[in-house]
Amino acid sequence: MHRSCKFTPFVTKRQLTLKTAKKYQVLGVMSGTSLDGLDLALCRFTEGETWDYTIERATTVPYPHVWQDRLRTAHRLSAEEFVLLDRSYAQWTGEQIRLWLNAVSRDVNFVSMHGHTIFHRPEIGVTSQIGHPAVVAAISGCDVVGDFRVSDVALGGQGAPLVPIGDELLFREYAACLNLGGFANISMNIDGQRRAWDVCPVNFVLNHLAQRTGAAYDSGGELTSRGNVDEALLARLEGHPFFGQEGPKSLGREWVEQEVLPLMVDLPIRDLLRTYTEHIVCRIQAELQNSCGKLLVTGGGIHNSFLRNELETRLQMEVVVPPNELIDFKEALIFAFLGVLRYREEVNVLASVTGAAVDHCAGSVFLSRIK
Fold first, then answer.
1. Is the pLDDT of residue 17 over 80?
2. pLDDT exceeds 50 at position 178
3. C-alpha to C-alpha distance for 238 and 26, rounded to whole angstroms
4. Which DSSP string corresponds to 344-360?
5. What are the residues facing 200 on neighbouring strands?
6. Cβ atoms 112, 26 nearer than 8 A
7. Which stretches within 44-163 are classed as H helix?
8. Phi, psi (rounded to 5 degrees) for 283
9. Alpha-carbon distance 227 to 335, whole Å?
10. Fewest Cβ atoms nearer than 10 Å: which of 62, 132, 143, 223?
11. In the beta sheet, which residues pair with residue 122?
12. Cα four-point dihedral sign 139, 145, 147, 149
């Protein structure tokens, strides 16, 4: 005989309290494609007529060389090796979180983390971020919210960018927000809807070129400033079909390795850097040509003085560069905020941004222990 029963989800008092809270203290954790390190931002959010935020403390834990090498080559691993790396990276991440919180503050509601992207091919329904939140929760002793991208890709979206919901709710005084990280992406409100898309690779390519000289990156754009633009290479970069596509659209490591890096040959490194920087500026100009007002610019790329000067000189918008704390930790801040929205079961991914079938609440919650 078949019997059916009603399933009642297990919900702790702590979860119920967080769902209706007005204040949250959350650790946002971010790792980008530039492999600089693990960003940790202890953030406080307060709900009122609008959301207020404070970055109370923040740090970047540099990746040891061994981890840089392992992450850089992770996409070449066998299935078993990849699973082992996922667990090992989660253990390392959980330990860094535990050590840092022990030093600065254990008073956090939960950790909200991005993980480190190894595969991102939304056109075939694939995105993978290593650093399993269940392991991080067990090691750190904190509840963890993670796995934000997978549900969006499952719903037909690009799985990126996810930051624009934070731009909409935390930075709405700006006409547009530009992030210059491994990739450049832009977020703005168009006809009453938040829209966002990836523009082009930035530090992913610039750092790759600088590393051919033995440097980690081109500090301040000094080597770039001594180069010349190669018009033939610039024309090939500018002519790629991706730049004629309408959004939503996103980029990943695979695209750069197939479409961009093979072009970066047969010229002095300083000329490749200068030409590619010109391409970055041209792409951003093209995306913002009909925009006015204030443009908030964050991400490690804005520390490149040459690139910053080119943008400030050539864009029609007023370029606003915030304090270093926000430049370097805005993505960690917003991933902390995504976790807040997830705990409250509110929309944290916008279909108008990613192209998913519907707005939705992404992320999974992993409890460190039952209380």
1. no
2. yes
3. 41
4. TT---B-HHHH--SS-B
5. 184
6. yes
7. 65-72, 79-104, 133-140, 149-154
8. -65, -45
9. 37
10. 62
11. none
12. negative
